[in-house]
Amino acid sequence: MREPLFVKQNADKWARFEESTQKTPDELADSFIQITDDLAYSKTFYPKSKTTAYLNGLASKFHQSIYKNKRENSNRFVTFWRLELPLLFKKHQRQLLYAFIFFITFCLMGALSAKYDTNFVRLIMGDGYVDMTNENIAKGDPFGVYKQGSEAMMFASIAINNIYVSLVTFASGILCSVGTIYFLFRNGLMLGSFQYFFFSKGLGMQSVLVIWIHGTLEIAAIVIAGAAGMVMGNSFLFPKTFGRLESLKKGASEGMKIAIGLVPIFIVAAFFEGFVTRHTEMPVWLSSGILAASLLFLIWYVVLYPNKIYKQTKHATEN
């Protein structure tokens, strides 16, 4: 499409967006999505034109309206998890995919290293943990580590640690995403070698049914935290039409929102690990049901639901 025709088809809509000063959070998000779609099209076909510069400024205006510090209304908390966070997942789905691929690759590296080097698991997990687990296996209780201490204390310590790991993984993205990839590498190696250790003992399926009760949410959240770090790091590396500092501020803001949005997931994962995983004798149907429900929730909330509301809001603004 030629640029004059593109402008003619959208000029009235852009004018309405400029003139409208009072919008609900949902209306702001809808307008912002449509403007960023137009901006992406303009960047692709008219990268150095005045139209692209104009849309860039208009998108920045809406971005500031959505994200600026202000007294939030009573439903702001709900709006964040119902609309804002899923739309960020949709916007940064490429970083989510990259983080997932990196993590799976590092897990495979950890498993293969453990397979071909008998000392690798001890190097990664530590002699104390490996010796304790071997003793538990000999006693017939291979997952006895999850039964140590009180449920409440374990829940609190695990929740705090997981949130800390998530924020560090995100914050490390400031190092041009290299720091985030390093933490994905470290956690991926640990998971891969840890999981292979149990498979090598003939406890592979049992370990999945026990450990992944909490691990499904916990590991997925670490991957998403990695994506948040890459959002920030890549915003500095690839600023596009924004200034590098402006792009970094935008990426840091959006990445932080994703990282903060993971807190409830980590809390639920810590609850499972503190109160549920310790019951290693639970029926297979129950443990597999918890695992499947966690996995289905993640697929729905991170992939399916964001695509659904993106299409809905885009369709609403076009009509």
Automatic annotation (TrEMBL):
It comes from the Bacteria. Pfam families: SpoIIM (PF01944). The chain crosses the membrane at residues 96-116, 163-184, 196-213, 219-238, 258-276, 282-304. Keywords: Membrane, Transmembrane, Transmembrane helix. This is Stage II sporulation protein M. It comes from Mucilaginibacter achroorhodeus. The lineage of its organism: Bacteria, Pseudomonadati, Bacteroidota, Sphingobacteriia, Sphingobacteriales.
